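Quick log. Single chain, no ligands specified.
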Amino acid sequence: MIMSRFNAGERWLALLTAVSIMWAPGVLLAGAVGDRRDEEQVVQVYRDVVPATVFLSSSYATGSGRNSSIGSGFIVDEAGTVLTNAHVVEGAHTVMAKLYDGQRVRAEVLGVDSYSDVAVLRLTGVNGKVPFVQLGTSDALRIGQRALVIGNPFGLGFGLSTGILSGLNRLPPGVAFSEPRVPLIQTTAPINPGDSGGPLMNSDGRVIGITTAMALGTQNIGFAVPIDLAKEVLGELKAKGKVSRPWLGVGGKFVTDEIRELFVLPLADGLLVGEVFPGSPAADGGLRAGTVDVTVASEPWMMGGDLIVSLQGRSLRTMEDFVSAFKSLKIGETVSVEFIRDRMRRRASLVVAERPQGLSHPTSMSIGKAAR
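-> predicted structure:
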């Protein structure tokens, strides 16, 4: 009886093993099928969106002749309206667009907003109807979502790269802030020179951003302007050619614990002023910029300037605080700024001006625009 029990157990073990062996390939097969479906979805997104993507070539008249740069853009409606980056076309004498079907037409610049790095163009002289993309939303993005980029890398032709969303509300490192910065989408999808202005898409093929820059000297760190911001300025750029924005003309960075301890700064959070634009509200209000240029952990800082701690009574601890406070400002109104100078709290009254057109954000050696 004992032997028969062992034999029965062995038979059950053999049966389970056989079932396991038969089942395991099924798991592998299911995984392979899933991979193929995922792959086909990426292929389909490319096929759907690439016909609405355009290559842009901008020509500039200079004292030494003519220069040119390339970038990308995408069509957003049947009228041939194109979204791209401001830095791709700003100041260009002529902008030409090459469509997916091979047509080469002129692109009229309707409006440029250097603050958000968004520009709106209109294709002229197109034969036939133009395809256009579906705009998604950047409001509910999640880190880890798939990201796809279509562009014109190095002018080689239409290309696709893939990755994930690796960060949200990013402020690129190494940049001196002249005003509230536009928080960007960060992605691991490679962004190369010539891709700037192209679409950043989700796995459904909806555009969630406009590719704008890459971090130099790194791998797979790219940035895109959130599509919701582009949609906000689209109508105003088409109607007026510009976006009217409040401006104080003060630049700097928000202090960190490391900087505070290293340079024995006041125990307060705020914007350390590194630049005051001549003729700006900040200059007229008497704010002072730093004069000592230092580098800490490869990050440039301008020390010795005022430390702005509040705007209109709202504490400024982070860039998000600054953005929130700035949104409520109106051109022409007088606002109160509280700052620390020589360890004493002071106040200044500034009259909010309109942001000058063509005023770009200061750039950094660590960030490269993806245009060539």
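The chain has six helices and 23 strands.
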